[in-house]
Amino acid sequence: MKKLQFLAIALALGVSSLFGGVYKVDPSHTNVTFSVKHMMISTVNGEFQKFDGTFELDKKNKLIALSGEMEVESINTNIAKRDAHLKSDEIFDAKQFPKVTFVLDKIKGNKAYGKLTIKGTTKDVVLDYEFGGTVTDPWGKQRAGLSLSGKVDRRDYNITWNQALEAGGVVVSEIVKLNVEIQGILKGDDEF
């Protein structure tokens, strides 16, 4: 009986540390989206369709590192004219600043502290953090999921284009909501 208990404990400890390590972001199961108020009455959503990144979990599945980059040219709001404007020098200036990046500094509770760089400007941000867990997929690969969300003021990144409305307010809100749903595959299980 004691041997079975020891084996169960050893197996449990082995499984919990099995998922620690470096994960590569799986782009087919990850979403990098944003939303912003338009005309102060509705919300416009968009996404970055091309991105890359890695994150690291310790043996207790605590997030200890994360870095990612999004390609500005991959912005998609489902309106070609709007996408072209977002990529222009009035907004993101994709030619001069082709990437948006995020680097994690630390996790404290359910908050992720890090540095967000847009248009060559880096600012400290605090995002809501949720760890989704770890799992072995049907093909034997170790996967982990996590979420980051929050708000940034686009003016902090020199994205200031706007137009005033006759009735008051502006065409585009200064506050942008971010939502990132990440799934990664443990290094060695993917094809780094």
TrEMBL record:
Residue ranges of the Lipid/polyisoprenoid-binding YceI-like domain?
22-185
Keyword Signal recorded: yes
What's in the keyword line of the UniProt record? Signal
Signal peptide (from-to): 1-20
* Transmembrane annotation, as ranges: none
Origin: domain of life: Bacteria
A Pfam family this chain is assigned to:
YceI
- SMART domains, per the entry: YceI
**Name recorded for this polypeptide:** YceI
What's the source species for this entry?
Answer: Sulfurimonas denitrificans (strain ATCC 33889 / DSM 1251)
